[in-house]
Hints:
By secondary structure, the protein is an alpha/beta fold. The protein has helices at about 40-50, 65-70, 70-80, 95-105, 165-170, 175-180, 220-225, 240-245, 250-260, 280-285; strands spanning about 5-10, 25-30, 30-40, 60, 90-95, 115-120, 125-130, 135-140, 150-155, 160, 185, 190-195, 200, 205-210, 230-235, 265-270, 295, 300-304. The protein has a seven-stranded mixed beta sheet with strand order 6-5-4-3-2-1-18. Strand 11 and strand 12 (about 190-195) form a beta hairpin. The model has no long low-confidence stretch (mean pLDDT about 95).
Amino acid sequence: MLPFRVHILGCGSALPTLRHHASSQVVEIRDKLFLVDCGEGCQMQLRRSRLGFTKINNIFISHLHGDHCFGLIGLISTLGMLGRTAPLNVYAPSDFESMLYAQIDTFCGGLGYEVRFVPLDTEVKTIIYDDRSLSVETIPLNHRVPCCGFLFKEKPTLPHIRRDMIDYYGIPESQINNIKNGMDWVMEDGDVIPNSRLVTPADPVRSYAYCSDTKYMPQLSQALRGVTTLYHESTYGEDNKKNAEKYYHSTASQAATVARDANVGQLILGHFSARYNDESILLEEAKSIFANAFLAKEMAIFNV
């Protein structure tokens, strides 16, 4: 199977700390790199990750709070200094467009490449990116400002050819694509070799959901049904549930409840409040509801 990984660059919440960088991560899927949120210090983390961030052509900003976008103009400037010529697509809530271009005009004169802004309607579920191998869809969330998450979904692939059977029956190379697309093979004597004998099943389709800042949404599990890997903010523990309610964030228990109800494969907890010097309490709370839960950590890599 081709790589489908999540690289955590930052998993802290608004207040900078020495333990965590602001929110940012790279989704690596089928040799493509997508940047999701771009908090302060993102480009330094990209360098540490050795991902070759000049390959990033699409950046997704979940909402207009600084810990999710303060690093963007610096990254745009650096890409220009590195001689980028390919267009860069920035997907973000529509209110960001004028601010983004004002920053570019002020700080990035003679950029050398085009920054294309794609406005997001954070209140509706919409496919915003689509190519031959994957799609990216918005996930409406409930925060203090317009906010959405992102759902990365692979497209189904064809079955795998059984080379031993192809050679055994002497099937020409010219028929491989037909076999992959479900055709049986007819021998010269009229014998029919069923397709099921010539192929093995296609790789399972994988999906990754990034749920940025959001108040607990019981209905969110419907939109995430069966997702392979879920990243869900868990700013607080149950000890600070009132703050979660007040500031439109979630607790680790609430994130785990969403994961359990959606029947996801695994849960990554992130966006930790600076008040926690040890997030193990958050992990324990989550695991009591959804066992396959993990803490995000800078430079951690999760296979979807």
